[in-house]
Amino acid sequence: MNTYEKFRNMMDNHIVLSFKGEINSDIITMVLQIMETKLDAVSEKSSVRKKIFNVLVECMQNLYHHAEAEVEGDIHTRRAMLELFYDEDFYYILTGNYIKNVEISPLKDRIDRVNSLSKDELRQYYREILDNNIISNKGGADLGMIDMARKSGQKLDYNFTKVNDDLSFFDLKVKVDKKRDN
Fold it and tell me: What is the pTM (predicted TM-score) of this model?
């Protein structure tokens, strides 16, 4: 595929942002600054733009705090991917990163729990975690997944692809409805 074909593919599939590379604080700052500018140019309601940006922030924080290093020889890199695209009804934020296989079951359980809760139950669960100062082994309170579900008003779509005995690739897709205020 030549450069023009790649460009047309991105235009035809409404790709607003596509990133693959090492995740660090400078990259996160840069991506969020770019997206803030791009979202200001989008002709959506400000409430939709705000939801997209808030979910994007949570996704970037998850990548930064939870992406595992991939080992190639002596090189350890925390690579990940992020893509923002849209169709007629939704914006989609897609992330992917390596995760230790031993962490899959607890993460799957957390996402499934979040996905099983109603809007009111999510709010209550969020408050419960804040009130009880529940801190995870990575230093956070695991509020990111809850916040993404609350802000998007949608279930979180995810998948794990086994890479080797130690690592899998975790992909997460969050949808933000273009037409509905949640």
Answer: 0.85
Comparing 10-19, 51-60, 63-72, 154-163, the range with the smallest average pLDDT is 63-72
pLDDT, tens digit, for every residue of 91-144?
999 999 999 999 999 999 999 999 999 999 999 998 988 888 766 555 555 788
Which three-class secondary structure state does DSSP give residue 159?
strand
Please name each of the domains of the chain with its CATH number.
3-177 (3.30.565.10)
Q: Are strands 167-177 and 90-100 parallel, antiparallel or unpaired?
A: antiparallel
Q: What is the C-alpha separation between 170 and 154, in angstroms, rounded?
A: 19
Contacts 24+ apart (CB under 8 A), 64-70: 64/23, 64/24, 64/25, 64/28, 65/138, 65/139, 65/140, 66/97, 66/99, 66/138, 67/23, 67/97, 67/98, 67/99, 68/97, 68/98, 68/99, 68/100, 68/167, 69/98, 70/98, 70/167
